[in-house]
Amino acid sequence: MEIIGMKIIMAVCMLPVLLILYGGFWFSGKEKNGTQYGVTLWPGARDSHGLQEIQKTYIRELNFYAVSCLLIFFLTLLPKRESLVITGQVVWVCWAIFAVLLPFARANKRMKEQKREFIASLPKEEQGEPEDKIFVDVTAAGAKKEKLFRKSMYGAGAFAVLPILAEYVLHTLRPGPQIPDLWACEAVLSSIAVTALLFPCYIHFSAKERTKAVTYNSQINLQIANIRWYQVCKLCMSMTWLMGALNWGILWGLHGPAEWFLPMITALSLASMILSVWLILRCFHQIDKYSKKYLVQEPVLTDGGDEHWIWGLFYYNKNDSRRMVENRVGIGVTVNMAKPGIRYSTILIMVSICLLMFGTSGVAILEEFTPISLSCEEGILIANQWKEVYHIKQEEIHQAMLLEEEPDLVRKAGTGMEVLKKGSFYSNVYERDMEVCLNPKEPPFLMIEMEDGTCYLLGDADGEKTKDILNKIQP
Questions:
Q1: What is the DSSP string of 206-236?
Q2: Are 385 and 373 in contact, with CB atoms under 8 Å apart?
Q3: Collapsing DSSP states into helix, strand and coil, what is residue 314?
Q4: How far is the C-alpha of 379 from the C-alpha of 393, rounded, in Å?
Q5: How far, rounded to the nearest angstrom, does the alpha carbon of residue 432 sit from its chain's CA centroid?
Q6: What is the pLDDT of residues 51-65, one digit of tens each?
Q7: Whole-prediction pTM value?
Q8: DSSP class per residue in 122-161
Q9: Rg of the chain taking only CA atoms, in angstroms
Q10: Integer Cα distance of 357 and 97 in angstroms
Q11: Which residues pair with residue 435 across a beta bridge?
Q12: Residues 6+ apart with CB under 8 A from 97
């Protein structure tokens, strides 16, 4: 039943990832500020047969890869071992990102080919490419960005951090037997608090960036810059409060009824994800809506430089002093990968994420497929499972008994699979904490109580060996 519950959680949490990726790249195929698929449009491009064919091909390929991702997702749920399901999901996420990116990269390549053909068809005197430069509007570049929602954002940051302190107090004053260890609770709450604080940090660094010039009219540039800055600050403030609310919700879930924890965390995660997507889409819709009012009769400024955009998504320009630039496709901003600090930081983050994902999968496989062994030599009982788990001195054992069935256990910290339970658990039957290392499907189990009150529940892959160990350690 545990693996079925895990598969349901995976489906609920991971399928929206595909929906978000598909929706994001579907909208990214639309024209934006005189560019499409990351390429600056040339005269007559909008009505050309070639562009229409590229659009049809792009949608067809995007649909094909999205459906293939959906089918592969369900294949990852077929294994009966949890570690294989986790590994399949990690591989699937990597494939899904690549699969929806590939059609866009192909469309970008076709657009560049169409543009080269168009330029080649022009008279030689008209074939010159525009100079490689970024237009700098002096008024917009020197515009000062106001500190909007500053007090509210600081309050939201404090609101998001306070659950960390509250958990420490609650864990001390009201220690619940089924609550995970303090370090585990604090790690979860701290990670969400750090995420919340990233939004004020983003505003802080964005305020130092040069204002983007979108037309040759300084006043229009200032108006659009103010609209954009207001909406982005409002979004960051809202996201900070949302992450704070999520942190308090998780804190409540940790100290609420144990049977409510999993459904509550799932519901909170889904709700925060859906609300986050809605806030982001609404922000950039508002920017686009109000900006268009000023751009109705103004020619849009395009800086050319298609060669600085890799696949139309990643910006790399050594001659541009900006660290962040507006995306050519979709919404938001991207970084200038030509800056060494940004480039190396991005690589480090990506490598760390990959190591974490695949490292977690590797450990899960190792845990699930390595049998547990118990040994007793020279008065020392050792529980092994690909490494030493517990080291128990026989002279410190108060009493030991054999259990033919696994008692009802609630995980506090550690591994909880259908074929492996290892770590700190709470027993509702014995009403005490237990250090556990056993395969629930391979009874009997050895329950050991130490003189200091610590309780162990152990089991070998061979039931007969567990019985032999009991005979050796009987005090």
A1: HTTSPPPP-SS-HHHHHHHHHHHHHHHHHHH
A2: yes
A3: strand
A4: 6
A5: 36
A6: 889 999 999 999 999
A7: 0.71
A8: S-GGG-PPPPS-----HHHHTPPPP-TTHHHHHHHHHHHH
A9: 29
A10: 14
A11: 424, 456
A12: 21
